[in-house]
Amino acid sequence: MGKSNALTCPLPPELATKLHVDPVAIDSASTDYGNIVHSKPAAVLYPSSIEDIQILVNSSYNCPIPFGISVRGNGHSVNGQDMARDGVVVDMKSLREDKNGIKIRVSKNHLFADVGGEQLWIDVLHTTAAQGLSPVSWTDFLYLTVGGTLSNAGISGQTFLHGPQISNVYELDVITGKGELVTCSKRNNSDLFDAVLGGLGQFGIITRARIALRSAPTKVRWSRAFYSNFSDFIRDQERIVRGGQRDVANYLEGSLVLDNGTPTEWITSFFHPTQLPQIMSLVKTYGIIYCLELTKYYFIEDIEREIDQDLQQVFKDFSHVPGFIDAKFVSYQEFLTRVPNAENESQTHPWQNLFIPQSRISDFNVGVLRDIVLKRNITTGPVLLYPLNRHKWDAELSAVIPDEDIFYTTSFLHTSGIDNWQ
Known about the structure:
By secondary structure, the chain is α+β, with helices and mostly antiparallel strands. The protein folds into 3 domains: about 15-95, Uridine Diphospho-n-acetylenolpyruvylglucosamine Reductase, domain 2; about 100-215, 2-Layer Sandwich (Uridine Diphospho-n-acetylenolpyruvylglucosamine Reductase, domain 3); about 215-420, FAD-linked oxidases, C-terminal domain (Vanillyl-alcohol Oxidase, Chain A, domain 3), CATH 3.40.462.10. It is built from 14 helices and 20 strands. The protein has helices spanning about 15, 25-30, 50-60, 95, 120-130, 145-150, 160, 190-195, 230-245, 265-270, 275-285, 305-315, 330-335, 360-375, and strands at about 20, 45, 70, 90, 105, 110-115, 135, 170-175, 180-185, 205-210, 215, 220-225, 250-260, 290-300, 325-330, 345-350, 350-355, 385-390, 405-410, 415. Strand 5 and strand 6 (about 110-115) form a beta hairpin. GO terms for molecular function: cytokinin dehydrogenase activity; FAD binding. One of its GO terms (biological process) is cytokinin metabolic process. This is cytokinin dehydrogenase.
């Protein structure tokens, strides 16, 4: 590495040779999936070991004027969170691709996996499923790093039942702000453990996580139903969530179908293409159609009919639009990998994720979804909206959630051109 005015302290020689200041490295670390914020670091570290990261952090800690350090997992922050202006970005991809990190080690007898913070959840799925096991809590998109989602929360349709990913971790290895590598759990160094999970990277760098596993299902009965009435939509979702029983559903999410915001492929990938005119007619009539999506997992081939009958009974008691319900059987891995790894560098992703108290969700529907999103015709991507159980979250962790038993998460997953994201 050449001399940098930004890094005010000399770095150990063995580390300096692993720092890159070439334009390709700097440009790569200056953007993210959001493609909105662009901030250049002084250098990018491609670590060949966990010790390299420790040395870097310790060097900054001991420097009279510490330099900023940010960790980049797979570059999927949306507002520059993994950038370090005039500092150093640690690109964890090098540990993953060079296989010098913790990797993924499954303990089948003890039902856990030790996973490097640099590892992708898609690889955790493949590795654990090969041994008939699986984590219980996921994100919708699996091309994210373990350290990245555990530094946030990690939520999806399984969260109402099993809690977020941060509630399904037994133990961590963390590099602290002094560069020390500390093992922590609920029993040992619990303050650090609680702070790091959901701590947005402010309290340490996750290098290993011990993740809870259970037997992996064989297949999934995947169903969707449409609603024209918001009150019916949330009431039926909350009936499932308040029950909190996997014999009703293992996964639950809700979403919006809008005239300009919902890709046709999303509808026809599930409903038959011949139903598209009827569905869009519903959207034209009501402005917004709400979609309830749930799954039921199963393990034995010969109970498909029983699962199908159970789900039919569930929907029989719901208030969805008659005739607008469909279902299909898919493999467990096919369901979890339903969101592809498709990126377009010419687009921006001004995503917004919110937690909303249950007591205000109807106001949110009227004031935001109908009075802003619908009237201004601004939606250019999926909008998710589904309830979560507060008691499935560990209140001692850093993640902040509404102080109500049931609260909602909503995600505006917009896509736009480079020049019109605002």
